[in-house]
Write a sequence for this structure.
């Protein structure tokens, strides 16, 4: 389903076999001096990468041909942040497949849905519309919150998105809010009547710690333990698997979804960060204070694919560390699935 981007294969070949930087170069804990199976070694690597955070880390990877799944904290709930937009996109494409929506349909930019940043300025233009295609592109490639909330409304709201995911057999992933209300909860704001900007500015005046948390990229502990708008790594793998397998959407919608995700402009240091140049990746990031996520599908040189979901929460060490954890975990999975022929296919392992 996922097509390779043009790449200089011969030039990249040498990079596949190039040694990775020593663990000490990144301040990682030393490797254990014991013989382990390929699976145990991969899980030990995941644990080493997780030690880069002072928060909680969840990692899940799955061979999409065999179903083999390896995970660290795979059944722990993590805030999805903008990674939830993968579920929003699926619901929208399901409406297209059902004939209830067309990809070129214009959707009105309701000023009541405007938050801040991105295309928020367009919402003040009377009669402004954007096509479903363009809104999907803005949501998945630029993570535009305003475009997302137009699509959430058209999808039937958060409950309809959760119902779509649940119908696919995915358990452990729940959408409870549009992006504006997700941000309110992340900031610890009880919104009053009025615009998003006015509510945020009033809350920051009333509680200076909100601005401090933003400035220092510190987690909000209450938000991190809130079960709303969360997913386990395994549940996100299940959603990606449903898409890739063709069980969730038509072939055309699946291809269109992954093509858009393949042009993601955020998180270049995350899933793609340590992969060989030219590796085909379709992914979606999620970021908030103390939170760094990335989920998607990676294609190996022989055409096989694996899904990856990495979540980091309650972290105060900064986005560079979170990005490194995601990149390291993805590269470890890449090498494992590519070079470990002795592994047991079709089994699930991990904590």
């Amino acid at each position: 389903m996922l097509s390779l981007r043009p790449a200089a294969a011969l030039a990249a070949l040498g990079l596949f076999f190039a040694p990775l930087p020593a663990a000490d170069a990144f301040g990682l804990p030393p490797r254990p001096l014991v013989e382990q199976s390929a699976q145990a070694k991969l899980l030990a690597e995941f644990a080493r990468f997780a030690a880069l955070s002072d928060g909680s880390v969840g990692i899940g990877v799955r061979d999409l041909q065999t179903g083999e799944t390896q995970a660290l904290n795979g059944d722990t709930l993590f805030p999805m942040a903008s990674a939830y937009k993968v579920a929003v996109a699926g619901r929208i494409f399901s409406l297209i497949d059902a004939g209830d929506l067309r990809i070129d349909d214009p959707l009105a930019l309701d000023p009541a849905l405007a938050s801040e940043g991105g295309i928020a300025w367009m919402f003040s233009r009377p009669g402004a519309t954007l096509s479903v295609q363009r809104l999907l592109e803005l949501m998945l490639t630029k993570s535009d919150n305003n475009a997302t909330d137009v699509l959430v409304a058209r999808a039937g709201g958060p409950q309809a998105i959760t119902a779509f995911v649940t119908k696919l057999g995915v358990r452990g992933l729940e959408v409870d809010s549009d992006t504006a209300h997700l941000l309110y909860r992340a900031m610890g704001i009880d919104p009053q009547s009025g615009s998003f900007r006015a509510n945020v500015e009033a809350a920051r005046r009333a509680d200076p710690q909100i601005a401090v948390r933003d400035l220092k990229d510190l987690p909000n502990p209450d938000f991190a333990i809130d079960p709303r708008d969360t997913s386990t790594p395994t549940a996100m793998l299940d959603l990606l698997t449903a898409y890739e397998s063709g069980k969730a959407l038509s072939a055309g919608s699946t291809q269109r979804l992954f093509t858009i995700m393949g042009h993601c402009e955020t998180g270049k240091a995350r899933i793609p960060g340590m992969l060989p140049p030219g590796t085909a990746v379709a992914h979606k990031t999620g970021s908030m204070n103390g939170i760094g996520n990335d989920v998607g599908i990676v294609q190996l040189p022989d055409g096989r694919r694996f899904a990856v979901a990495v979540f980091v929460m309650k972290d105060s060490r900064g986005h560079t560390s979170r990005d490194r954890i995601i990149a390291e975990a993805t590269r470890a999975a890449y090498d494992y699935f590519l070079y470990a022929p002795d592994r047991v296919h079709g089994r699930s392992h991990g904590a």
Observations:
- The chain has two domains: 10-80+267-350, 84-224.
- The two ends are 30 Å apart (CA to CA).
